[in-house]
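Entry 12.
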Amino acid sequence: MRRILQAGKAVVVALLVILCAVFALCLSRAPVFEQGEGYELSYGQSSSAKTERTETPFLDKLIHGTVAGESVRYRGDRYEKLKAQFSAELLFTEESNGVVNYYLYSPRIAGGVQLYGKTVNLHIAVGSEQTAAGTPLIFGGF
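Predicted 3D structure (tokens):
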């Protein structure tokens, strides 16, 4: 009887370890941004190597593995909301053709790229009708 109980405990522990591993995998594949007008995942050694639109970012990240970057588009100006959501620090801005580009660092987002000697891991571009957000940067057209 004692052996059966020990074997049962071992099975339960093994199942818990597997569940924890699956949970950790799922957390690592969660999309960075909430769904918007269009979600894009970038694959390859650089974020601009290959970019694909997706309606199911979690599933695509789960299937394809680690991505080099993510971006999403929203209607209207979402800069302040995104900055607060990610507890991000504004590093610098650029303006071109009526679009303001905000380059930020967020402790809630892993990785980043070096721009002007600073680590940027959140890029938010705001135009007259929409906001695009990307990590580490927005790749492709606005």
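Annotation: The first strand starts at residue 38 and ends at 43. Residues 20-28 have pLDDT under 50 and may be disordered.
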